[in-house]
Amino acid sequence: MRWKNFCKPLLRQFPKHHVPIKWHGYVGCGVEGGVFKVSFGDDGPYALKLFWNTRPQEPLNRGKPFVFPFQDEARNVAIIEKIRWAVQHSENPIMVHPSPKSSELKLENLYCFSEEGQRSPPEFESSVPMCSADYINRCHGWLKLDKKNWPKNYDQYEWRGRPYSPEEADYRWAIVYDYVSSKVKEHDLNVTQANIDFFYLTGFEAAMLALGYDAMMC
Fold first, then answer.
1. Is residue 134 part of a domain?
2. Range of the domain at 34
3. CATH number, domain at 98?
4. Where does the source fall among the domains of life (predicted)?
């Protein structure tokens, strides 16, 4: 992946967006959206996050920037999948700074995952191999759902999760993830630590803010 792809991240459209959805159950909801267990034809199960808002919304605390959870999440998971791809396809371990505390170091660590960064990596006083992304839940892309394809009792779920009135739009955005069974241990310390290491070494949130880019979809 070229560095420009990290600066303008594109989350792909879900490859089976044209396949009819089977709604198997409701998982939970919050102010951003609801999560459902679904399959696409005979393929699944997946976790589908259906977002309540189709456009940026004014925050509850006036004076704050407008928020668009779907856009923010699309950006974040696009970056995660690019990092995952780089780690899995690199011939040699990708070396990063072990303690990226400044914004500059966080950006340099993110740069290490690009083609340019692997050819000419930043010169760190010390470095460590990047950990795997095996424990990060995989994202399969975005899709647009017309109202006719929403789950039964959709209005009931939306009213439960939202702090304000539902939109009148006849479509919703969604993002598709691997479905994680409830049988998986939620509090496995090894998994928790692996996730912490991943986001710390990538300098994830600070790097996103420093780049200041918009989320994009392809």
1. yes
2. 3-211
3. 3.30.200.20
4. Eukaryota
Question: What count of other Cβ atoms lies within 10 Å of the Cβ of residue 137?
Answer: 13
Residues 6+ apart with CB under 8 A from 163: 31, 60
For the chain, how many residues are written?
218
Task: For residues 79 and 85, give the distance between their C-alpha atoms in angstroms, rounded to a whole number.
Answer: 10
Computed over every residue of the chain, the mean pLDDT equals: 85
- The model's confidence at residue 178, banded by pLDDT at 50, 70 and 90, is very high
For the chain, the distance separating the N- and C-terminal CA atoms, rounded to the nearest angstrom, is: 15
Classify the C-alpha dihedral 49-52-57-61 as positive or negative.
Answer: negative
The structural domain count of the chain equals 1
**Can you give the pTM of this predicted structure?**
0.85
In a domain, 216, yes or no: no
State which H helix or E strand residue 24 sits in. strand 21-29
Of 91, 78, 102, 80, the C-alpha closest to 129 is 91
Beta-carbon contacts of 5 under 8 Å, excluding residues fewer than 6 positions away, are: 82, 114
Element (H, E) at 191: helix 189-202
Q: Does 218 fall in a domain?
A: no
Closest CA to 217 of 34, 78, 56: 78
Bridge partners of residue 173, in order along the sequence: 144
Q: Could you tell me if residue 67 is inside a domain?
A: yes
Q: What angle do CA 82, 87, 91 make, to 5 degrees?
A: 130
